[in-house]
Amino acid sequence: MKKKKVNLRDLKPNSEVQHTHNDGHNHGNGSAFKTYVPAIISFTMLIIGIGLDYFDVSFFKDWIRIAWYGIAYLPVGFPVVKEGWISIKKGDVFTEFFLMSIATIGAFVIGEYPEGVAVMLFYAVGELFQSAAVNRAKGNIKALLDVRPKEANVFREGDYKSVSPKDVNIGEKIQIRVGEKIPLDGVLLSEKASLNTAALTGESKPDSIQKEAKVYAGSINLESVIEVEVTNKFEDSSIARILDLVQNATARKSKTELFIRQFARIYTPIVVFLAIGVTFIPYFFVDDYIFRDWLYRALIFLVISCPCALVISIPLGYFGGLGAASKNGILFKGASFLDAMTKINTLVMDKTGTVTKGVFKIKEVKAIDWKETEFMQYLMAMEEQSTHPIAKAILEYKSEGEDFEAQDVSEIAGKGLKGIVNSKTVLVGNKALMIANNIEVPAETENIVESIVLVAIDNKFAGYVVIADELKEDAKETIVKLQKVGIKNIMMLSGDKDSITQQVAKELNIENAKGDLLPEDKLNEVEILKKNPENKVAFIGDGINDAPVLAASNVGIAMGGLGSDVAIETADVIIQTDQPSKVVRAIKISRSTRKVVWQNIILAFGVKVIVLILGAGGLATMWEAVFADVGVALLAILNAVRLQKMKWD
User: How far apart are CA 12 and CA 241, in angstroms?
Assistant: First the structure.
């Protein structure tokens, strides 16, 4: 089923989501010490109270004892009771807050004061553990996003000043130095610019643009310093929208989470009525019925039955996975995509900017009747006069000896350059330039699929240079690792020339590859794959032209380091480091997360069933009940936090 594209601008950081377990218990604000003060006070008073009880201190009786435990209860109990009351007023009666409130208040009613305080204290500690784990996961994601552009050089009061991109207004002028990312969308004010826009357009050639052309945040300035007029505020950038997504990541629940929440909504009222039954029904069947004893059993039953461990640990397991992924340079937009990633068996990938770097490099130099270094000196002398992106790749060649100087260089539109170097006429360009000057070109050049620069010196063909996009360092390793984790069906789809696409696919040992594709052609190929219900398809790409396929695939994966706003907005998973090998790591993290979540489910249900049976038979006290609920929750939380310590090779 095709996924509906989500407009990230509609996702506000404080948007309302379903009432969750830690509503009203946000411990992320303020100092760590203030956060833990209520639990510390309750714990200290509880330990002192238990000590006074144990030694049977004479003054610690009656109302003094009740008051002591009452005060110990308030710091951790009052927020929960308050939250339960707020939920009841909203019509949501059977929440875990309600269960914990009636169980602990009931313990006070029958004189089990230490148990009442202990249950609520451990519940509060569980909340703190949960909050700390969630904040840590969010912190990892935010720290990762902090590597994005942090400043913009804006022209104010007659000079350029470095400010946060958030403080730049529409219509202001910014300056971008060589090698810097453009921090905001805008219009070029300089006469011309050369930008690395591979991630935005899907084209492997750097983009040479003229004055008044549009430029986009994420493009890299390759040559001279340029000036840009801002057309969009920072809030509309991909960076800001991703941060919004992080804040709302839990809104996209996994199927497991949704099932547990729906289960808890039905399960909780059943538990309450069963507890009432445990209290009163034995009256009709037991000869020596004692109300206090059966009420105590019912309260134990309530504490054990509270879905606290499940409601906390399962979302936290997924959040642990999200945090672990972020530490590894991978941003999942929600827990549902962690689940979806575990089922992927088919991977379709773009070429330019995904497995290749999207930048030109010299692949081959062929000099005819010239020494290579001397041949390159003639060529480099001419290319120094050019602003074409290919010229920059040629000028990176390391030559020995003196630099030659070109004179009387003229550009022949659509063909190349003509000039004088060392009193020799030099032609540099394409085949059309050679033909126009009656220069015979060797037949071997016809079979070269990459970009080629032909050179003639004094009206005689002198050689050529092959310029090609370069594979990313981990591209070959990625294909091998994908096969090892069970992704057997790998396909490459590209808008680049089919001959180049087939050559790259051959280098990577990918059997199925197609080039010369329009965005709709890529979409059709993925739709054909999805017609087979056994195929769970992930697509990895980085350009605007990849957005339709990212949306249509079961899991859309975008290269986010230089990726376009549209690709990042449409994708479900973002690879922040632009390394294709991170896809393998994303699969491994997803599988580890699912494993931990199911461990937590089995642990929570298993222990609860055992202690429920013991509690109903009068063999378990409130302390066993505390372990069955809060203790298991703490174990599940620690298990979830373990995800952030794992290593995935």
Answer: 9
3-state secondary structure at position 295: helix
Catalytic residue (one of 350, 572, 578, 629): 350
More confident residue, 463 or 109: 463
Same-domain pairing of 372 and 351: no
CB 580 within 8 A of CB 541: no
One domain, residues 506 and 463: no
Same domain, 552 and 484: yes
Contact 134, 316 (CB under 8 A): yes
What angle (nearest 5°) sits at the alpha carbon of residue 23, between those of residues 22 and 26?
A: 70
Same domain, 346 and 449: no
Largest CA distance in the chain: 120
Q: Which of 10-14, 28-32, 241-245, 636-640 has the lowest mean pLDDT?
A: 10-14
What is the 3-class SS of 170-208, one letter each residue?
CCCEEEECCCCECCCCEEECCCEEEEECHHHHCCCCCEE
Catalytic status, residue 350: yes
Q: Is residue 605 part of a domain?
A: no
Q: Would you state the structure tokens that stand for residue 439, as one six-digit string?
A: 């220069």
pLDDT at 434 over 90: yes
pLDDT in tens, 127-158: 777 677 666 655 555 554 554 567 899 999 88
Q: How many CB atoms lie within 10 A of CB 171?
A: 9
Q: Give every CB contact of residue 218 below 8 A, 6+ residues apart in sequence.
A: 181, 182, 199, 200, 238, 562, 563, 564, 565
Would you say 119 and 96 are in contact if contact means Cβ atoms under 8 Å apart? no
User: What is the C-alpha to C-alpha distance for residues 604 and 613, in angstroms, rounded to an integer?
Assistant: 14
Q: Report yes or no on 51 lying in a domain.
A: no
| Range(s) of the domain holding residue 374 | 358-470
Question: Minimal CA–CA distance to 219: which of 190, 185, 187?
Answer: 185
Cα–Cα distance for residue pair 221/44, rounded to 1 Å: 60
For residues 390 and 382, the answer to whether their CB atoms sit within 8 Å is no
Q: Are residues 477 and 558 in the same domain?
A: yes
Q: Which 3 state secondary structure label does DSSP give 111?
A: coil
Residue finishing a domain among 470, 504, 531: 470
Quick: pLDDT tens for 359-407.
778 889 999 999 999 999 999 999 988 767 688 889 888 877 777 899 9
In this structure, the answer to whether residues 350 and 480 fall within a common structural domain is yes
Span 190-233, pLDDT tens digits: 988 888 754 344 345 677 788 888 887 767 788 889 999 998 88
Residues 213 and 346 in one domain: no
